[in-house]
Write a structure and sequence with these properties.
The chain is about 20% helix and about 40% strand. It has about 150 residues and is an alpha+beta fold.
Length: about 150
């Protein structure tokens, strides 16, 4: 009985020790299986530019972290994806920590049958939307489809 209890305790300790790594693998697996990894842009032939479109890159690092890079031409940043879940309707709900903004933002992405990516919502941790229902809040314009560039 005592031997069984000791094995159970050892197994529980190992499970707790490796749970963060398993969570990171789940995040990486989610974005990979959904099809997010790679480079995306409205027009892959256009050089990244703040006014003409950014190049957005999602990748898994060797340490298992999922990173989101934005290339605006003259400026670039790199941000860590902290969670990603897939809704029943197939939307990928992503949370990214932006050190430069000192905030976490959540956005929802949909892949079309043709393989393009589109932002459906983007909101701050306080619930302030910049994109809602596939439209920019400030202008009412629909968000453009992004194409895979790699």
């Amino acid at each position: 009985m005592r031997r069984c209890l000791n094995r159970w305790i050892a197994a529980a300790v190992l499970w707790v020790a490796f749970e963060p790594a398993a969570g990171a693998e789940s995040l990486a697996a989610t974005v990979e299986q959904w099809g997010l990894l790679g480079s995306w842009a409205i027009d892959c032939a256009v050089r990244p530019d703040r006014d003409k479109g950014a190049l957005l890159i999602y990748e898994i690092r060797k340490d298992g972290r999922v990173m989101y890079q934005r290339n605006f031409g003259e400026t670039k940043d790199e941000n860590e994806v902290v969670s990603a879940t897939v809704s029943a309707d197939g939307m990928l709900n992503v949370m990214v920590y932006f050190p430069s903004l000192q905030q976490t933002r959540e956005f929802g992405l949909l892949l079309s049958k043709q393989g393009s990516l589109r932002a459906i919502y983007n909101r701050s941790e306080r619930g302030e939307y910049t994109i809602r229902d596939g439209k920019y809040v400030a202008t009412g314009a629909s968000t453009p489809a992004q194409q895979r560039c790699d």
